[in-house]
C-alpha cells in the first residue's frame, strides 16, 4: 500500500541552479549538497528550460548566471519572470560580470545578492546561500514601484508607466534605488559611467532621471541632492 504524499511543509525544499557551464553548475550543486543534503537541486542550462521550470516549480531559492549560451542577458529576463510571479522567490546571481557595476543593477532588479565568479570561495558561496535561504523564509514578497532592466536599452517603468531613459541614466537610477535611504557619493556613481566621469555630468544624468519620472508622476520628489557629497533616493520603494 502506498503512503499518501507528505504535507507540503514536510517536503524537501527545492532549489534551482541556472548555469550554462556544466563544470560550474556541478561545483555549485556539490557545494549546496554538502551544506544542505536535504535540499532537492534542479540544474538548468539554458533559458527556455529554466523558464519552463520556474513556471512549473516553486523554488525556495534560485542561483543563476546572467549570460546563458549566446543570450548575454538571459538571466535578467529570468529575474523579471520570477518577479512577475509575485512569489518572493529569492535569487542569488553568480556571474563573471564585474561586481562593481552589476551588483547594484542586480539588486535593483530585486536579486538578493551577487557573487562574481573567480573572486569567491566555497565558504563565501555557502555562507551567502544559507543566509539567503534562512532570511527568505520570513520575508514577504515585496512590490516595488520601480521596474528596471538597465542591462539593455529597454524602457524602465515607474508605477506602471514607461519612462524614457538612456542606459547610463538607468544605471545611475539603479544604483540610487538599490541604496535607497543612503547617500550615494559622486565617486560611487562614477563607477557606472563609462565616459564623462565628472560631477557636472552626473548632475545632468540625475536631472534627466528627475524629468523622466516627473513626466509620468508630476509630484515626484524622491531624489535628494546632498551638497558636495552626491545624491540620495528618499522613497521607500
UniProtKB/TrEMBL annotation:
Response regulatory domain: residues covered: 14-132
InterPro entries documented for this protein: CheY-like_superfamily (IPR011006), OmpR/PhoB-type_DNA-bd (IPR001867), Sig_transdc_resp-reg_C-effctor (IPR016032), Sig_transdc_resp-reg_receiver (IPR001789), WalR-like (IPR039420), WH-like_DNA-bd_sf (IPR036388)
Protein name as annotated: Response regulator
Gene3D superfamilies cross-referenced by the UniProt entry: 3.40.50.2300, Winged helix-like DNA-binding domain superfamily/Winged helix DNA-binding domain
Keywords from the named record: DNA-binding, Phosphoprotein, Transcription, Transcription regulation, Two-component regulatory system
Residues bearing PTM 4-aspartylphosphate: 65
Amino acid at each position: 500500500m502506498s503512503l499518501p504524499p507528505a504535507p507540503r511543509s514536510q517536503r524537501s525544499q527545492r532549489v534551482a541552479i541556472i548555469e550554462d557551464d556544466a563544470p560550474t553548475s556541478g561545483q555549485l550543486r556539490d557545494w549546496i549538497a554538502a551544506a544542505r543534503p536535504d535540499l532537492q537541486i534542479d540544474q538548468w542550462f539554458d533559458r527556455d528550460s529554466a523558464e519552463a521550470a520556474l513556471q512549473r516549480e516553486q523554488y525556495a531559492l534560485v542561483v543563476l548566471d546572467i549570460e546563458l549560451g549566446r543570450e548575454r542577458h538571459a538571466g535578467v529576463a529570468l529575474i523579471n519572470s520570477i518577479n512577475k510571479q509575485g512569489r518572493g522567490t529569492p535569487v542569488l546571481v553568480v556571474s563573471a560580470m564585474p561586481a562593481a557595476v552589476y551588483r547594484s543593477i542586480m539588486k535593483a532588479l530585486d536579486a538578493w545578492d551577487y557573487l562574481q565568479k573567480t573572486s569567491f570561495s566555497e565558504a563565501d558561496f555557502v555562507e551567502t546561500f544559507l543566509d539567503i535561504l534562512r532570511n527568505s523564509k520570513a520575508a514577504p514578497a515585496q512590490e516595488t514601484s520601480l521596474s528596471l532592466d538597465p542591462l539593455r536599452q529597454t524602457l524602465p517603468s515607474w508605477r506602471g508607466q514607461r519612462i524614457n531613459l538612456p542606459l547610463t541614466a538607468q544605471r545611475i537610477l539603479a544604483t540610487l534605488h538599490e541604496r535607497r535611504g543612503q547617500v550615494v557619493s559622486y565617486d560611487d556613481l562614477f563607477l557606472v559611467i563609462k565616459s564623462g566621469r565628472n560631477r557636472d555630468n552626473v548632475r545632468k544624468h540625475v536631472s534627466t532621471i528627475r524629468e523622466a519620472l516627473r513626466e509620468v508622476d508630476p509630484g515626484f520628489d524622491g531624489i535628494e541632492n546632498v551638497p558636495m557629497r552626491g545624491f540620495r533616493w528618499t522613497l521607500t520603494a
